[in-house]
Amino acid sequence: MIPNVLSIAGSDPSGGAGIQADIKAISANGAFAMAALTALTAQNTQGVSDIHFVPPAFVQSQIEAIFADIRVDAVKIGMIATAEISDAIARSLSGHVSIPVVLDPVMIAKGGASLLQEDAVAALRTLLLPLATVLTPNLPEAAQLLGVRAAVTRDEMVEQGQALCALGPQTVLMKGGHLDGETSPDCLVTAQDAIWFEAPRIRTANTHGTGCTLSSALAAQLAKGLAPAAAAAAAKSYVSTAVAQAGDLSVGRGHGPTHHFASFYANSKG
């Protein structure tokens, strides 16, 4: 049976990030994608120019409508935008604690625009982190959640991942793309353990929506029954291919998107 994954996130009309990227990544990873919108953005590959927040009550209505009719095998949470929306999401999911939740703490767009209001950081920390099966911060996001400087070494990645686990998530996938070096290591951290996932660094401008894509692929793999470590390995492999093949696309003049369906296009060429 094909699993169902619900993404709760904002919209990116350029298609590289947000709900649009989530739907592509979930589909490419073998699950049926559903979406509840938290915000509408006006953006392209060069940046975000405007944001319209969806009323929190309507965010909750969308989520509750899905659960009232459709089996949900995993949830991915992306851009929450405001503290009120965070509260609406937490209340909507409070009766579904057995379902895996991947939480991507979206705070800043690739072009530098803030996607999370200041008071929403505290709400994210207190209301949503305890719901997460896997939290997927990059290094600046992890630092902001903890109120410390960003990790610059692998040891600091593990330490900050464990500190985040103490706030409620079952596991934390620390994304090491901001580290210096020729590799892009990620680390899946629990209170007792750390598992590293290695990949060569790909020098490209086509990295728009990589966090959305990874977290959605991870949610799809969890929905298929994989344990967090196996799901993280599959998701990282998928994203590495999507980034490596992004040059096949020609989308915009800024940070282009990843190639969500790279493997399907490759198979069709044969």
Number of helices: 9
As a whole number of angstroms, the C-alpha radius of gyration is 17 Å
**What about the largest sheet?**
9 strands, mixed
Q: What portion of residues is helical?
A: 25-40%
Mind explaining what this structure looks like?
The protein is an alpha/beta fold and 270 residues long. The protein has a single domain (4-262), classed as UDP-N-acetylmuramoyl-L-alanine:D-glutamate ligase (3-Layer(aba) Sandwich). Helices cover 39% and strands 19% of the residues. Helix 1 packs across helix 7, helix 2 (56-69) runs parallel beside helix 3 and helix 3 packs parallel to helix 4 (118-128). The radius of gyration is 17 Å and the shape is globular.
